[in-house]
Write a structure and sequence with these properties.
This protein is mainly alpha-helical and 148 residues long. The chain is built from 5 helices and no strands. It has one domain. The radius of gyration is 19 Å and the shape is elongated. The chain starts with a helix and ends with a helix. 17% of the residues are buried.
C-alpha cells in the first residue's frame, strides 16, 4: 500500500512540475539564425520531432496499462515470467519517453551554437532524433503486441 501511495505521489509530483514549468525550448525559424542552406536539415529534424511528439500520448497510455498489469501480476507468483516481460516492456517505454524529453531539452541549445558549427550540430541532431524515433516506435510496437 505504501508503494502505491509513493508511486501515486511521484506521478502527481511529476505532472505538477511539468504543468508549472514552461515547455522545453524548441527553436523556431524566427529565433534561430541559420544559414539558408541549413534550413532543409533543420526542417528534417523538426519533422521527425513533430511526428513523434503525439506518440508520447501512446507511450503514456501503454505505461498506465502495463503498470496496472504489474499490480495484478505481483499478487500471482505463478506468473513470474509475465511479470518480468511486463516490467521489461515498461522499462522500454520509460527509456523512450526519457529519450524524447532529453532530446527536446538538448535541442533548445541550437541558439547557442556558432553558425560555423551549426551544420555539424544539426547532422548530429538528425541522427539523435532518428534514434529517439526508433526507440519510441519499437517500444510502442512491443507494448501493443504484448497487450493484445
Amino acid at each position: 500500500m505504501k508503494i502505491k501511495f509513493l508511486h501515486a505521489f511521484a506521478v502527481l509530483l511529476f505532472f505538477g512540475i511539468i504543468s508549472c514549468s514552461s515547455e522545453p525550448k524548441v527553436p523556431t525559424n524566427a529565433s534561430v539564425e541559420l544559414k539558408s542552406d541549413l534550413q532543409p536539415l533543420y526542417d528534417e529534424v523538426m519533422t521527425v520531432h513533430d511526428e513523434m511528439m503525439p506518440k508520447l500520448n501512446d507511450i503514456t497510455k501503454h505505461q498506465t496499462t502495463l503498470r496496472n498489469r504489474l499490480d495484478t501480476l505481483r499478487t500471482q507468483p505463478e506468473l513470474k515470467q509475465e511479470l518480468m516481460r511486463t516490467n521489461s516492456i515498461l522499462g522500454d517505454l520509460n527509456r523512450a519517453e526519457d529519450a524524447m524529453w532529453t532530446w527536446m531539452h538538448g535541442f533548445g541549445a541550437l541558439d547557442t551554437i556558432p553558425q560555423h558549427k551549426q551544420e555539424q550540430w544539426l547532422r548530429q541532431e538528425r541522427a539523435d532524433v532518428e534514434s529517439m524515433k526508433n526507440l519510441m516506435l519499437s517500444s510502442i510496437t512491443k507494448a501493443e503486441e504484448f497487450t493484445r
